[in-house]
Amino acid sequence: MNTVLITGTSSGYGLETARHFHRNGWNVIATMRTPREGLLPDGVRVLALDVTDPTSIAAAIGAAGPIDVLVNNAGIGLVGAFEAAPMDYVRKIFETNTFGTMAMVQAVIPQMRARRAGVIVNVTSSVTLAPMPLAAAYTASKQAVEGFTGSLAHELGAFDVRVKLVEPGYAPTTRFAQNIDFSIDEMIPEAYADFARPIFDAFANPSLTTTESDAAEAVWLAANDVSDRLHYPAGPDAVALARAG
């Protein structure tokens, strides 16, 4: 039975991805910073993992055993004018979204390289497919992962390890920015109010949105696709952006 380790499974895309792999008969290791009971079906193994903490990463990888597929889904977001973004939080975004992904990849490479088998799926966002306002820091953190993943696909391909990118679109039901410790209103200075209003209105009533199932199915496809395909947009909005690009 194949084993998948998924980061950031406490909600949203990560939670549904864990459920999806479990329904399809995989051995699922679901990780989150603070494990909670009742989120996942019986048979799913839950481990504590903070992707920004090297000690936590080492403990989780050691406890997991052999991993066939790593899904780097853990991430945090920020919406608002970059002028108002606290730089300590910008660094936190990169620590989680970018460096956390890199650290997890580095932790599993040795076992996959030695076996000459394995898949690494890095989850980014549709913000990498077209420039979007009021998401500059978040976009930068995800664009870095895109470049990293493209290069890594060549590097690890020499050892028969596949590396993939899943790019989900916008999902109003995901906890995109709920981990911030300041008001989102602080991110829209008065000077930006007229600019931001129609953008937030569009977010509130999007014509195309991505569901958790869209993202889970794209991760599943990426994990099982033996071709050299790198990009897997997830959701109708992301697919439309990818085609337009």
UniProtKB/TrEMBL annotation:
GO terms for molecular function: oxidoreductase activity. Keywords: Oxidoreductase. Transmembrane segments: none annotated. Pfam families: adh_short. The keyword Cytoplasm does not apply. The keyword Nucleotide-binding does not apply. It comes from the Bacteria. Belongs to the short-chain dehydrogenases/reductases (SDR) family. PANTHER family: SHORT CHAIN DEHYDROGENASE, SHORT-CHAIN DEHYDROGENASE_REDUCTASE FAMILY PROTEIN. This is SDR family oxidoreductase.
